[in-house]
Write a structure and sequence with these properties.
The chain is α+β, with helices and mostly antiparallel strands. The protein is built from one helix and 13 strands. A hairpin with a 4-residue loop joins strand 7 and strand 8. It is rod-shaped, with a radius of gyration of 37 Å.
Amino acid sequence: MNLDSRKDVPATTPFSATDPTSYNNATSVSVYDSLGNSHVLQTFYVKTGPVAPATGNGTWDVYATSDGTALPTANIGTLSFKSDGSVDTAATTLPFAISVPVTSGATTPLLINVDYTGTTQFGSAFGVNALTQDGSTSGRLSGFSTGSDGIITGRYTNGKSATLGQVVLANFTDPNGLQPLGNNAWAETASSGAPLVGTPTSGNLGTLQSSAVEDSNVDLTAELVHMITAQRNYQANAQTIKTEDQIMQTLVNLK
């Protein structure tokens, strides 16, 4: 975020989350306890020292509340800045560790680390430029996809994703020596050799393509010609049987 260096120290002291005149800016983010319950963590920024031309620094106290309730330690840390507007890492220890008591039956306290790395103090309006957090509510598996490397990635209703497993491929020294079991299943034999198992794209193994039907591995034109030829042969044989039947019927009538 950026904290406005032009702001003055608040006129009202001490800090109070219910008194906007006691802080300069505030923002909030959702955090989650061990049961997936959501809590609103609100942080407040109070300027405590102006930018001094001689030393080129500025300081801001950071306060926090959870679900509108003050934390046991309201002041979670102090941000100090250099004359170029960047955080003074020598005077500021990051991240700020917050201990949030929860009454939802989840693990308490909820421990949160707030990292202000990249925060600046420039002469421009306060604003949150980026916000990331690694917590989430509970979720259920809503779908999955398989990559070309065989890795199966699951998607959950809370927007998260996770690796569920990986499909491996097997090759044989003599694939023609496999024993057919039916229903597109094959079994290892002494002729085929032991399976050479590996991940897709490794060695001489191919890749996987999900949500696709395997194309035919035969020459469709040649097979169509063979089918027409077989049909004509069948018709010719049928005519032969018909002719033989007619001759037999004629012989019977001669009696």
